[in-house]
Structures are given as structure tokens and as C-alpha cells.
Amino acid sequence: MFRNHLLPLCLVGGLFTAGSSFAQVVTIPVETQHNALVLQTDADKNLKMVYFGAKLSNTAEYARIQKMYNQKDDSGILNSAYTPSGSANLAEPAITVTHANGDKSLSLVYVSHEVTKVADDISLLTVTLKDPVYNFEVKLYYKTYFKEDVTEQWSVIKHGEKGEVVLNKFASANLNLKGSGFWLKQYHGNWAEEMRPEEAKLTHGIKTIDSKLGTRANLYEPSMFAVSIDKPATEDEGKVLLGALEWSGNFKIDFELDVSDNLRLIAGINNAAAEYHLKPNEEFATPALVYTYSDQGKGDASRKLQRWARKYKIVDGEGSRLTLLNNWESTYFDFNETKLAELLKDTKKLGVDLFLLDDGWFANKYPRNGDHAGLGDWQENKQKLPDGISWLVKEAQNNGVKFGIWIEPEMVNPKSELYEKHPDWVIKQPNRPEKYFRNQLVLDLTNPKVQDFVFGIVDNLFTKNPDLAYIKWDCNAVIYNAYSAYLKKDQSHLYTDYVRGLYKVLERVRAKYPKVPLMLCSGGGGRVDYGALKYFTEFWPSDNTDPLERVFIQWEYSYFYPAITSSNHVTDWGKQPLKFRTDVAMMGKLGFDIVISKLSEQDLDYVHGALKNYDNLKEAIWHGDQYRLQSPWDNDAASIMYVDNAKAKAVMFNYLVNNRYGTGTLVPIRLKGLDPQKKYQVKEINLYPGTKSPIENDLVLTGNFLMNVGVNPHVSSGRTSVVLELDEVK
Ligand code: GLA
């Protein structure tokens, strides 16, 4: 137990045990480049989380932290690293169980720990806890990404009792934070209203963010959050923890300001109507809570998460993406081969990489001519597409573009052949009237046959059309009347096993098609989380593509997800001119969903220029660092910039978000993330044909000037969106 792991701290994320002067006490620092989370046992071998914050320079001093606190804790385990219930604990538990004999008490004590090095940058700490009375074990996992300052934390639960144990609650992570006050930033929303932030000081008691929607679980509330410590963190100042659960189903995150004024954070799958029956020796692995910490504000924390996501989580995060033309808003369900052939020509004319055919291409007995029928019947509609998808793929190739397609494979319309053939594959109560969300029901992905069916939809598409280049995977309904014909007596497993079934399908898809771009969509942003994004290249933030709204929506998503994952399409929503719409969409992965034939010559010229600029800047936008300069919430103009990794090229987007009289950028906006020593040429790009920029030609300024004085993009009611490019001058 007191082995000194003499692995270099900078490599392993730091693990050591205290010296013999602290007999019986084991101290386990979980370190990353700048931060540390410290676990420590007490004399009774309870494992506690005693520190979370900036890494200390003298690692031996971690062992002394706990003794500096005189806070009251009668239970003795208020800051448990994974709080059991029914024994000493009186606070919100991380785990509640019913043993095989009906007893509901659990105590967990430290047994051992080990660190394995997964890769240069990645270490995995495993701590084993056991109940001294029952044959019951929990392993806590802390996977640290050293350079990125990111930790993924989860637990694995197992028992060797005589009979099933019921897991009544089974959190992924239980953090304990100390500070003079805590502020929670959370999000709420609905269709077309995603990512509306609220921030408030946490008061004593428990604040919960959760979802019980089953699928499309983030529709009302996502699991992403920020907790500021001591005072509300700003963009560049203050201590802040950013976190989210890597889970695409029901979640629950409790923030308990406890009797000792510390913050207990307990995150995991929502246990509401979801107790799990665990057989002897079966392992129950919880999904990871991913988090990062910065003492330099939300901006720094978000860049850490973004870097981590690109490097380790999303598919092909350091790779390339396809620009595209989508037909959803230009045709809805109303198209045929002739119309699509025109759109393929338009794709070429527009100058993007791919044409994405949206909803409406399938089903024959109940044709998919609206959202009330056909879902589940994944055969080409013979009237609309007599020559099938393969003809479209070829026709796309003839036009020198790629072809992608929309599916919603987890769902079914009651008006479909699938429903007629397999009513037992559908989640619905046998004895109650059906209740629909968008005229549809959810397929029962706990059933392996349904998993095969869903995998088959994707597999058939690619097998028949090997050149198919992109899939948009939608998910438009929540789960009402939760009941699985497959699960029989284990109905409470439905919410958990649904998500596991979904991930099994996605694993199979990725095993066979590792790199093909997949867009994660859920009636807008109803399912954006790192559990799912592990299998996707990008997501659809919202069906709301009004660019004014998107400035806010994309701004908030960017705290958690890198720009390369954010599919932003130029559409006809809103009242803004084409330039504004395109400039906003360029902040992430650019696409279009407009009628190209309606564009004027000038519009088309402008778009061609913008696409060229995008190509030139995509390295900075997709793989560089993002800096939020001016928030749309508190300013007339929002301003965001991206800098490439060499600090040689940057782009600054500025959008007017207030149209009252006299609004605009009256003072310069300070840039961030540049090299102060370098000189940059600043020039306005994406100018609409025939307009001139008030920004001087040949403006060359040092990074030092740009970061201390700034630059004025001259945003005003006559210049509602301004894009500036910065290039290093040698
Ligand atoms: C959802 C998606 C849209 C579109 C429609 C098709 O609403 O978010 O982008 O694909 O479905 O029915």
C-alpha cells in the first residue's frame, strides 16, 4: 500500500503514497499539467476527496491538506470519494443498493489502488473499494489527459452475493469542492431554443439538473455545466470546473451545498425508474463524467475541453470535414429525381463538397411525404426515386460532388410496415393508449434483434452504395410509456439498456466504417454529448438557423464542444442578409440549406469568395484555439476569434446582435491568443461585392498592440457582420 510509485509525475498524472509519518493514511494525488485532485484515506480507510484545484509544487504537501480543515462532519464521510448510503452517510449518496438479503446498508473502504499508463499523455488510476461486511466492490476510475488537464471519471460496480443485488443509485463520479461560494452555470431549452444559459449562486441543499426523456434526452436540459468557485468566473478570470456526462440518455447531476459549506457534486445515469438488477459477478460500468478545471476562467477551461475532444474523443477530430448543401429547408418532403438532379448541379455550382439528401426519400406502402408516415421502412420510395440511391450517388459523382443521406434509424411511425410487422420492437405500454412525439415511437434498442435491424439500415446503405460519403443520424422523439416487450421483468433496465444498445450499434458501425463522417442530430440539439460524439464527426446544434439566434447558441455550445463539431448551415431563417448568415455559419463546420437558383450573381460571387476564405481559414477554425472576445449577452456586437496552432493565422468574427439606434463597436476589441512579438497583417474578408471596408489597407500591427489596444471592426447597423483575417508578416 505504501509503495512509492516513482513514475515521473508529469507523465503519469501523479500518484504517490504518503510517507510513513502518516501511518495508515494513503494519499493519492491525481495530477494533470496544471491541476490536482487529491484522494486520501482516513484512519478507518474511508476514501475522501480532500483537494481539487491548482497542482501544488511540493507533492509531499498533499498529505497535509485535510488537517488544515476544522469543518464539522459528524458522519465522518461527508467528503467521501464515492458516498455509500445506509451506513454512516446522511447526505446525498453516490450509490444506494439493496443487497441480495434485502439489507440496504453499504459501506465502502479503501482496499488498493494502481496506476497504469495508457499512453504518453494518458494515465488511468483505479481505486478499489469494498464493503467490509458484504461481498460488494466498487472500482473508481480516473483517466487523466495530462496536457489537456482533462479527467474522465467513472465507476464499475460488482458483487459476489448469493442472488441479485439491486442498484438503486449508481453514480459515475462524486466530487467534493471547497470554496467560499459556488456558482452554477446550467442550460435549459426546447426545440429551436437550445443552450439557454442560467447562472446562479448555489444555496444550501441540493440543486439538480437532470433528464428523464429517455431519448432526445437533452431537449429540455443538457448535462453540461460550469461551477465557479469563490466567485463567478469570467471568460479569463476565476476558478471554474466545466463538466458533462458522457451519456446519451437520462442523467442526473446533483450539486449539494452541504452542512460544512462544501460542494458535493454527484453525477451519473438518472436512477429515476431505473434501478438495476445486478447478477453475481456481473460488472456494471457507469458512463464517464468528463471535466476540466482552470483558475483562469471559462475561456481557458473550454479550450482545454475542445483540445481534448479533438484529440481523443470525436471521430477524426484532427482531420478534415466536408462542406455541403442540404435540401431540407429548400424542398422538405417534396422532391423527385429531376429536382434532386438540379440540386446536385447546384451543389457543384455553389462549390461545396457534398450534397446531403434529407428526410423523405423512403417508404412505399406508407410513403414518407410528411412526418406522420413511413419511418422505419428504409427502402427508396419508388415514385420519388425510381432509380434508387445508387443513381443519385452516381449522378453526384458525374457532377464532381459527394453524396450523403439522412436516416432516423431508432424510430418508427405507427403508419409503417415496420410497425405492422414488429409491434413488439416498439417501446410502448401494452395496456395503455399510444402517445406520440412528432407522430412517432421509439424502437426498443435493448432487443438485440432491433440492434441488428438498426445496424442493418446503415450497413445496407453502405454495402449497396460504397461511395456514400456522409450520414445524418437523426432522433426526433422522446420515450413515452416506457415499456420493453424484450426486457420482461426487468423494465427498470430500459432507460440504461436502451443507451447501451445504441452504443453497441454505433460500435459496430464504427468498426466497419471507421472514418465516414456522421452527423449527430436530434430534432436539433436534443442529443449532444460525448457519449455519442465518440462515434460522430459533428453535431447539429439546433433546427433554429436564424443567424442571430445561432450567434448565441453556437457561443454557448462552444464552451464544451470544438468548432469542428458544430454543423452550421446557411438557411433562410431570420431576417439577416446572406453575408451575415454565412459569416455566422463559418464559425464552425460550414454548410448551406438554401435555394441556389434564387441567389443573385452578387450573392453567388460573395458565397464563392467566402468559401475560398473558409478554405484558407479552416485550419484555424477546425484545429486552432478559440477565444471569445465579446459576449453577445452583454454587448452590441459579439466577437469570437480562432488562432491556428502556429499563431500565424487567425480569424475574428464580429456580429451585431442589437439593433437599437447607434449601436456598434465604438471602441476597439482586444484580441487574444496571438504571439505578442509577431506582426500581423489585418484585413477584412468576406466583403459583399460592391462594398468597401473602412479598415485601412495594409494594416500591420504587432500581437502586442492587438492584444492590448485591439482592433475596431467597425460594426454598425450598416455593417452588421465583419470578418477580419490576420496573417503573420515575417
Ligand atoms: C429534424 C432535424 C432536421 C431535419 C428534420 C427532417 O427536425 O433536426 O434537420 O432533418 O428532422 O424530418
TrEMBL record:
Per the UniProt record, the source organism is Mucilaginibacter lappiensis
Protein name stated in the entry = Alpha-galactosidase
Q: Which UniProt keywords apply?
A: Glycosidase, Hydrolase, Signal
Top enzyme class, one word, equals hydrolase
- Give start-end of the signal peptide: 1-23
Q: Where is the Glycosyl hydrolase family 36 N-terminal domain?
A: 46-279
- From the UniProt record, list the reaction(s) this protein catalyses: Hydrolysis of terminal, non-reducing alpha-D-galactose residues in alpha-D-galactosides, including galactose oligosaccharides, galactomannans and galactolipids
Q: Where is the Glycosyl hydrolase family 36 C-terminal domain?
A: 638-718
**What family is reported?**
Belongs to the glycosyl hydrolase.
**MF (Gene Ontology):** alpha-galactosidase activity
Coiled-coil ranges from the UniProt annotation? none
Q: EC number(s) per UniProt?
A: 3.2.1.22
Q: Does the keyword Signal apply?
A: yes
